[in-house]
Design brief:
The complex is a heterodimer of chains A (about 130) and B (about 260). Chain A has about 130 residues and is mostly helical. In chain A, about 80% of the residues lie in helices and about 0% in strands. Chain A has one domain. Chain A is built from 6 helices and no strands. In chain A, helix 5 packs across helix 6. Chain B has 11 helices and no strands. In chain B, helix 2 crosses helix 3 and helix 3 runs antiparallel to helix 8. Chain B has one domain. Classes of the chains: A mainly alpha (about 130), B mainly alpha (about 260). Chains A and B meet through helix 1, helix 2, helix 3, helix 4 and helix 5 of A and helix 1, helix 2, helix 3, helix 4 and helix 5 of B.
Chain lengths: ~130, ~260
């Protein structure tokens, strides 16, 4: 329980710091390169995640690692395109949705609910088809 | 320059948080959306709950400038965009926020491809959005917030930042109620029959080496090294190990 809360606290801290600085978490601004702050933020997420994964990588350095597949890469690319389209249509992706939830915006809660239902339906439809 | 340094520091923290929550693994994201990896859903909900409570506190203390807050209006594009966004996230396990973190903390090439997709998609938006402009007008745009947190935007309920903080606390309670998925039991296999041990040709010699000297009336002391506390911490470590969110984990097996 304590560990779960601790992990969540890190996200809360990061979100609060960005909210104090900018008042929003706008990753679409990073992809569109319209804000130096958000572009730097997106770029520095890479070493941040790498640093956090380092202890486990060292611990399991002798074990064989699962590598990216061309299918996974193609899915990620297509997914990225669709995510950008969805986020652009809604005037914000998961970053702005998180910001909206933090400030109690109705549109963010609607986005969260609809996208979750859509994701759930898509996942189970594909799974059913595969089965 | 200040913008770059501040943004970089914030990004470093956010990347660490995303990795710590296990969202750099696509299977974890898909599993949490499909409620198959409830431990991830729980962590994320805890995080959002804490963030809402912290934001409410900082807003109440006027550390967050409420003039900076932008309320995105609710219109047809919000619903249509959420459907596309959710379907893409549910199918690929990728999100615009987790794609860069995947490069550093997950599968490198898939992260690069996902980020490239987001970049190209964002670049194509000015051409695509005018075609879909009609979708936005399906619902009248309204920029409501649940509570009064901005100076100008309309709100639905009274309570201000206190109510917002309580909403965050409510999310944490919901997260507490979510039961994580049960640990997978290791497959039980029939114990292998021990090969018969060879009888030593020199039993006297062996006995001489394993003599335990006891004083008359004393009993040998048996030390149980596998005590309860050790076992418990081992189990905890195992659970931690299992829930660690690296790409080495094959999520398909867990998700059945």
């Amino acid at each position: 329980m304590g560990r779960q809360i601790g992990r969540g606290m890190l996200l809360a801290l990061a979100a609060a710091v960005i909210m104090v600085m900018k008042g929003r978490i706008d990753l679409m601004a990073a992809y569109g390169n319209t804000s130096a702050f958000f572009t730097a933020m997106a770029v520095m997420m890479i070493p941040g995640a790498f640093l956090m994964s380092l202890p486990r990588r060292i611990r399991h350095r002798r074990e064989p690692r699962k590598k990216s597949t061309w299918k996974g890469c193609a899915a990620c690319f297509a997914g990225g395109l669709a995510l950008a389209l969805g986020a652009g249509l809604a005037e914000g992706g998961d970053g702005l949705m998180l910001t909206g939830v933090l400030q109690g915006s109705v549109s963010a809660y609607v986005f969260l609910l609809v996208s979750w239902i859509s994701g759930l339906a898509a996942y189970w439809l594909v799974r059913r088809k595969k089965a | 320059m200040t913008e770059l340094i501040a943004g970089g520091a914030a990004g470093l923290l956010l990347g660490m948080a995303v990795q710590r929550l296990g969202l750099t693994n696509r299977d974890n994201v898909r599993g949490s959306i499909a409620l198959l990896r409830r431990s991830i859903t729980r962590r994320v909900l805890y995080g959002i709950g804490w963030a809402v409570a912290l934001t409410a506190l900082l807003g109440w203390l006027a550390v967050i400038d409420v003039d900076l807050l932008q309320v995105i209006p609710l219109h047809g594009g919000t619903v249509a965009g959420a459907i596309i966004f959710g379907a893409a996230a549910g199918l690929t396990g990728l999100q615009t926020g987790t794609a860069p973190a995947m490069i550093g903390g997950g599968r490198f090439l898939e992260g690069v491809c996902g980020t490239a997709g987001c970049l190209i998609g964002t670049m194509a938006l000015p051409r695509v959005l005018p075609i879909l402009e009609g979708v936005r007008t399906l619902l009248p745009g309204s920029g409501y917030t649940l509570f009064r947190v901005t100076l100008d935007e309309p709100y639905l309920l009274p309570g201000g930042f206190l109510a917002l903080g309580l909403t965050g606390a409510g999310m944490m309670v919901v997260a507490m109620l979510i039961r994580p998925e049960p640990l997978e039991e290791p497959v039980q296999t029939a114990p292998e029959e021990e090969a018969p041990q060879e009888v030593s040709a020199e039993p006297e010699t062996v006995q001489e080496e394993t003599v335990v000297a006891l004083l008359p009336g004393e009993e040998p002391l048996v030390v149980d090294s596998a005590d309860g506390a050790g076992e418990e911490s081992r189990k905890e470590e195992e659970e931690e190990e299992r829930s660690e969110t690296e790409q080495e984990t094959d999520g398909e097996n867990h998700m059945g």
